[in-house]
Amino acid sequence: MFAALRPALTGLVAVLLVLLALRRWRRPGSRRPGGSVALAGVAVVVALAAAVVLPRTVPAPPPPPGGTELTVLELNAFQGFADVDAVAELVRRERPDIVVLPEAGERFRGRLAALVPGYRSWTNVPPRAMDVRGITVLAAPRAGDVAFRTISDPPGSPTDTRYPWAEVTGGILGPVRLGAVHVVSITPGWIGYWPGELALLQRWCAAAGPALVVGDLNATPDHSAFRAGTAGCADAATERGASLTGTWFAGVPRALGAQIDHVLTRNGPRARDVAVLDVPGTDHRALLVRLRRM
């Protein structure tokens, strides 16, 4: 859990080190060899952490011109409590081609669909299921004839997940398979399933063809399980130097949160622009990614 806070903790400790150093410099009588050694040791640890974190603020070269423009919006709807009017306004304003909403079942889907006519929509859980169980997907008219299927493997099987996932194909996606996912959270009752669910992302990240993975992964690049499960994929926000902007918890400043919502790309799609957007009613922020499908 604390690995996700590495960027914020690194910055916080760095500030504290500067303040301590200034205090010792201003008070010569308080300087002690032992304190200096401890301060130097902490400084080394912070420098090593910064060496891991800071490269994620440097954007990679942008994708070449050409290809098909593709915009993806992701937002955890917080058990269906996200402000549906605000979500609809965001969709109307940004006009994403594909929208992926973890923790949104049939109740939320129906309310949102009525506010964004023209968008096709699906959810991967039965009508009576709680919103927290579902993932709702919307496709714009421009997206064309995309197809949606639920991925829900038998309980207890090696590929079972606590929440069902989904896959979107066809239309504007071309040969790209888009996995819409919600990985279990890191809580005492669920943490045993968490590494295995991240490992299942390899069904897209190790695929021969082009793929996208979109959703709440409840992990950041600071987690080794995330790096293993997403090996072969590129994180869109990291490519654009924006992976230190927190998407959760929305109640704290962005620099103090963790980016656990992701758009991952493989073998073709390339991120052109990434934005993190506030939405009332949910403890997550939305992730808007504009890509080129090469």
- Number of distinct helices: 8
Q: What would you call the structural class?
A: alpha+beta
Percentage of residues assigned to helices: 25-40%
CATH level-4 homologous superfamily of the largest domain = Endonuclease/exonuclease/phosphatase
What can be said about the biggest beta sheet? 6 strands, mixed
Give helix and strand order, one letter per element, not per position: HHEHEHEEEEEHHEHEHEEE
In angstroms, what separates the terminal alpha carbons?
36 Å
Spatial strand sequence of the major β-sheet: 3-4-2-1-12-11
CATH structural class of the largest domain: Alpha Beta
Tell me the quaternary state.
Answer: single chain
CATH architecture of the largest domain: 4-Layer Sandwich
Q: How many extended strands?
A: 12
Q: Indicate the overall shape.
A: globular
Give the strand content.
Answer: 15-25%
Unreliable spans: 1-6, 8-21, 41-49
Overall tally of domains: 2
Quick overview:
This protein folds into two domains: 2-57; 68-293, Endonuclease/exonuclease/phosphatase (Deoxyribonuclease I, Chain A, 4-Layer Sandwich), CATH 3.60.10.10. 28% of the residues lie in helices and 24% in strands. It has helices spanning 6-26, 33-53, 84-94, 106-113, 194-199, 202-205, 224-229, 236-239, and strands at residues 68-74, 98-102, 120-123, 135-139, 146-151, 165-170, 177-182, 211-216, 234-235, 261-266, 269-277, 286-293.
